Amino acid sequence: MFWKRKRNKPTNFKCPECGQAHSEWPALTFKSPSNYHNLSDQEKVKLGKLDSDFCEIHYQDQIDRFIRVTLTQKVNDACENLDYGLWVSLSEKSFSDYKTNFDSQNHEVCYFGWLCSTIPEYENTMSIPCDVITRKGNQRPEIFPHQDFDHPFVRDFYDGISKSEAENRINEMIKTMDDNNM
Q: By C-alpha distance, which of 79, 75, 83, 82 is closest to 163?
């Protein structure tokens, strides 16, 4: 889990990694796409390649390709938003283009991707269609779920969630970090 500096947060959250109390909301992150996380340890070694920004799973008949992205969830009754660090799958062409331009400070493009992180607050968030927008300055790409896709996660993204819901999500994800691939 990584932490971002936020202002005016009265609630403290204890970081399970460093043990320190932080007054800012953490960005809720996933260490790997669910597709990789769900592999056995043997399969991860045999089929997978994972680093902090890229993941590949090499099956006999196909290669699945994933990149790490961000999503900012609007919180309606707070000055802050809730940030997620998620994973999406990309086509071979998009993955190759992104990887080739990964170190470019000025690479801005839109890819199509599928969400590949299982977000505990929702039933099946796998395969939600998204626009993946790269950003200048080597920031991780940001995703925007397709608004016409009927799913509670998509509705919440566009309508926002309450501050209490955001804090509940933070507390639940911190409690279950290891179990939920965070």
A: 75
Average pLDDT over residues 161-171: 90
Rounded Cα–Cα distance for residues 25 and 30 (Å): 16
Contact 24, 6 (CB under 8 A): yes
Residue environment code for 38-50, b if the CB has 16+ CB neighbours within 10 A, otherwise e: ebeeeebeebbeb
Mean pLDDT of 106-114: 95
Give the chain's mean pLDDT: 86
Residue 35 near residue 23, CB atoms below 8 Å: no
Q: What is the 8-class DSSP label of residue 99?
A: H
Could you tell me how many residues make up the chain?
A: 182
Per-residue tokens: 47:
């089929």
Residue bearing the bigger pLDDT, 9 or 94: 94
E strand spans, the chain: 2-3, 13-14, 21-22, 26-29, 48-50, 54-58, 63-73, 82-89, 110-115, 129-133, 142-145
